[in-house]
Amino acid sequence: MAIHLDGRPADTAVRGIIIMNVFVAIGALVSGDGMLMLMWPYWIQSVVIGYYAMRRIQKLERFATDNFKINGAAVDPTPQTRRKVWTFFLLHYGFFHLVYFMFLGAFSAAGVMGEVMATADAPSPWAPFWYGATLVGFLVSHGESHREHVAADLRGRPNIGTLMFVPYIRIVPMHLTIIFGAMLGGTVGLLLFASLKTAADVAMHKVEHRMLQGARA
Fold it and tell me: Each residue of 155-191: pLDDT tens digit?
């Protein structure tokens, strides 16, 4: 693991995030399925981010609960608090993505996304393999950052409330670009959308990285 001169863990995950975004954009262009081939992989990426966030909370050994409350009451840094936090996060974050999944599935089945965002008449037959490949890619690219953060968490005493909140800060700009990108079409629109999404992804990763460093401090 790379370390800065001041002892902070180096942020080495940006390269992987950029590579995966470029990989997804190229796949969308080659397939001819346009935005359809972008939105599903980005949904997968969001789920991967949530999974690693939950695992970080589960792996906490020492953590702070300053200014953090459950049902309006202050809590102590105990295993019970840790379990409540990651369980709530799983249910809340998971429900949001379940609803998102249902909308994407309905739009895809109805052909709405194809009419607006695709250049091909039907999704590519290799789409399931493509989605599987993007899942593996995002697991690897975000897994590198996850390992660095967990190692630093174990050396410090991060605030569990911050760890639960940060993933939402990370994905909201990403999903806003997805929503507005759905209004675009054609190759130019796809490239513009992919570029904006990549920029938002990297920027919010940097914000997350700094917030978590502050939480550990």
Answer: 888 889 888 888 887 777 666 766 666 666 567 767 7
Quote the strand ranges of the chain, DSSP E: 69-70, 73-74
Q: Which residue has the tokens 């863990």?
A: 9
Q: Are 64 and 160 in contact (CB under 8 A)?
A: yes
- Inter-residue contact 66 to 153 (CB < 8 Å): no
Q: Where are the domains of the chain?
A: 14-216
Find out whether 160 and 85 touch, Cβ atoms under 8 Å: yes
Q: What is the DSSP letter of 10?
A: P
Q: Rounded to whole angstroms, how far apart are CA atoms 182 and 162?
A: 31
Say yes or no to pLDDT of 132 above 50.
yes
Q: Return the DSSP state at 156.
A: S
Report d(CA 52, CA 146) in Å as an integer.
6
- Judge whether 65 and 75 are in contact, CB under 8 Å: yes
pTM for this model (two decimals) = 0.78
